[in-house]
Fold this sequence. Notes:
Structural class: alpha/beta
Distance between the termini: 15 Å
Order of helices and strands: HEEEHHEHHEHHH
CATH superfamily: Ribonuclease H-like superfamily/Ribonuclease H
Shape: elongated
CATH architecture: 2-Layer Sandwich
Strand content: 15-25%
Helix content: 40-55%
Number of helices: 8
Number of domains: 1
CATH topology: Nucleotidyltransferase, domain 5
CATH class: Alpha Beta
Radius of gyration: 19 Å
Amino acid sequence: MSEERTRTTATVGVAEHGNSAELVTVGAADELLDRRRIDLTQGLPTHPHHHEGSWAVGRYLDSPWARPTTLPEVLALVEQVREAAALGAHEHLEALATAVPQSIEQIAIRLCPELPPTTAEQIADNRAQTVADSVMYRQALARAAQARGWSVRWYDRDQVFHEAAAVLGCADIHSFLKELGRSVGAPWQARHKLAAAAAIACAHSR
């Protein structure tokens, strides 16, 4: 029996940008079931490591948008944003699971780089502070998915289109994804195609 006939569950692909993310859900036959944009936080700074954290340690203070702050204030802010992102991830995945007609069992999220272990160390590290906020949001989605019993697959953005093409046996994955998007219409942009490719590669990896 073919994989297409034995698979019965849906898979979510995520393409995140700051505190927002595109979620693209594909079904058992690689059909497009849902596409939505979510915001994990509301009314809070979106990049507390990179912006407020940098100001606290003396970066970018000559910029017109900078303001004085202290490291303890920033550490508290990061935790506030982290908690809000956790709640937002839980609520959005709950809403998605309710809306999609097939049971969701997997989610594909972009691989996180390794970071120093503490928030203070991440802020102090010039490389880490530029990606720590994105990692925080990806981890919030991963934890919310795991709490629902979904498995999490971490994908490599540079490889995922090749992986999707390979599992589909598709010579032109970009044409395939373009056609997939026509079923829901605009917007269907690069980030939606990335999330769809991740979902397809994840679904077949089982």
